[in-house]
Design brief:
Elements (H helix, E strand, L loop, with lengths): L21 E4 L10 E7 L2 E3 L16 H30 L6 H20 L5 H5 L1 H25 L8 H29 L7 E5 L11 E4 L12 H11 L4 E5 L2 H11 L5 E5 L12 E3 L2 E7 L5 H36 L5 E7 L5 E7 L24 H8 L7 H6 L4 E3 L9 E2 L2 E2 H4 L12 E3 L1 H4 L9 H16 L3 H11 L10
Parallel strand pairs: 4-5, 4-6, 6-7, 12-15
Antiparallel strand pairs: 1-2, 2-3, 7-9, 8-9, 10-11, 13-14
Length: 503
Amino acid sequence: MTDYGAQDNCAADAAMEASAARSAFFPGPSSAEAEPISLSVANGGLLGPALSHTTDARPPSSKEALRLRLYVGLVLVDAFCIFAGFLGANAIRFDQLFAAKGLSYSATILPPFFALALANGAYSLDALEHPPTGTWRAVRALSITVVALLIALFLSKSSAAVSRVTVGLGLTFAAVAMTAGRLAYGKYAGELAHWNFLNELLLVDGISTPLTERRHTLFVQELGISPRANDPETLERLGKLLQGFDRVLVAAPLENRLPWRETLKGAGIDIELLAPELEQFGAIRFRRCEMGPALLVAPGPLRFQERITKRVFDLVVGSSLLLLVAPLMLAIALAIKLTSDGPILFRQRRLGRANRQFEMLKFRSMYIDRCDPDGTCSALLEDDRVMPLGRLLRRTSLDELPQLINVLKGEMSLVGPRPHAIASTAENSLFWNIDGRYWHRGAVKPGITGLAQVRGYRGATRTTIDVMNRVNSDLEYLVHWSIWRDIKILVRTASVLAHQNAY
């Protein structure tokens, strides 16, 4: 959806350059053990096996792809064990390995089994870290599935056609095979990942804390990063340093913990505050690690499976929409080229996931010499900067179509909080100064449309209430996300493409 918020220049100085170096342990990318190396600081980055020495920090290799491959492996192991169990039952009951009944039983059991196993955590991080736990969950899901199907057959008076011997033997053999297969696969997966399936970052803020070889370490004071940062440049820099990590542990003095919570809440990953003083209370509802109890204060709004679901949805629907509107986009591009000088596309820096900046694409709707790349001035109803063709494009939101390319590139999502220009203001105040929760919107990718837009909160942001209405809607979207809500928002978007505030 088009965002025409009032905007003003934001002059934010970069954080001060690092002044010292410190020694730390970094886990190497392919070994469970790492040698201590020097942690050097230069131009706001880190020198180490996982982070670059430039301001464009190279993140550690994400372990999401590894976890996805291991989950797929578990699915294949379970499917193989179920088929193997019922083939074995075929061999005993019918004296033939590939009897039709055994194969049909397997094919019938698999879909509900996978749904139930997924729901009870048989394909989860916990299942990878503790193979016996995952094995028990999978076997339990298999048993419940078979019993439920037998009950359904009995109630439908179809149980007479079922071979009880085949079902009983098949369930037993499949459960035994699944137990052996999952435990063996779990040992293989654990050794492959060195029993460390997450990239963890220890963020140290001016206190002494034990360092371990298990996780990367970041000394924020030496990088000039403050927990009270309130400007896009510093937060983008911090977002780049967090890229590739699944969890961040913060070791900070008590007075800095709440500021770190607020600053990191928009990172889109689990943020935990180390609170060693909680040891005296014997807390058991906090996660424990080598350094003591850690309090979960900012969970990522979407779990791994949910992010995969949302990304697949974006790719399938986004690519389909792009193919559908490609002729229209070509016609618009040709019309812009024939009616004005300058590029077809307008590029503008916007705030993306984890408050990292990206270049958002739009069809150019203003004269080339009067474009506003920083978004310092919102478009007015009769704005003479806007071309006649551009007025039509903005009124119908057709100028936003190139953002489908941002979606396919992974910079945006079809649905999410709208990305604002860096200099966006209301009543001469920058958005993040109006509502301190503004940065929390960065927990997910920004969207072409969103809950705020379908509620009518679009157009010029003249008052602080305009900003707060959008922030409230965006944070509500994060809390109550579901793929069905994304679909509902997309459907509702069709009714607000042409809007009285779009000009």
